[in-house]
Amino acid sequence: MDLVITPRLVIPSSELNWRFSRSSGPGGQKVNKTDSRVEIIFNIEESKVLNDYQKITIMRKLKNKLVNNSICIAVQDQRTQLLNRQLAIVRISSLIRNSLINTSKVRKATKPSKASQNRRLDSKKKRGELKKNRQRKY
Q1: pLDDT tens profile 88-100
Q2: Does the pTM exceed 0.85?
Q3: 50 in a domain, yes or no?
Q4: Are 94 and 58 in contact, with CB atoms under 8 Å apart?
Q5: Which pLDDT tens digit goes with each residue over 70-129?
Q6: CATH number, position 52
Q7: What is the rounded (10 degree) CA torsion for 89, 5, 55, 104?
Q8: How many CB atoms lie within 10 A of CB 76?
Q9: Distance of CA 67 to the CA centre of its chain
Q10: DSSP assigned state of 8
Q11: Cα distance between residue 89 and residue 109, in whole Å
Q12: Where are the alpha helices (H) located in 66-113, listed in sequence order?
């Protein structure tokens, strides 16, 4: 099952590692015996699909979610392993997709208004007068 990030960026299933374990939660005897909890692990540094810029961008934006330069998503929301696998695929693909989106806005250069210039000059004049009044007169 390949991981489709964008139509042009598809991570092959060979770069994804899966781990399965028993899901936690309430239950008694013979309950939760299936390995329905799913962990998907994607190592960013060892990826052959991502270029260097994409790797750096993902590592910078997801630095709090990385463990050994790998993204690890654990899902145990559903009762079946198949549904949890599908949820894990959706979550990791949206996480990578959102980290690759450039959200920085370029500042539009503007000039200060005439009124703001006058306010600034008035405050400077008032400050100068205040200091002038503090001086001793000989």
Answers
A1: 999 999 999 999 8
A2: no
A3: yes
A4: no
A5: 999 999 888 888 999 999 999 999 999 999 888 778 889 999 999 999 999 999 999 999
A6: 3.30.160.20
A7: -120
A8: 19
A9: 14
A10: T
A11: 42
A12: 81-100
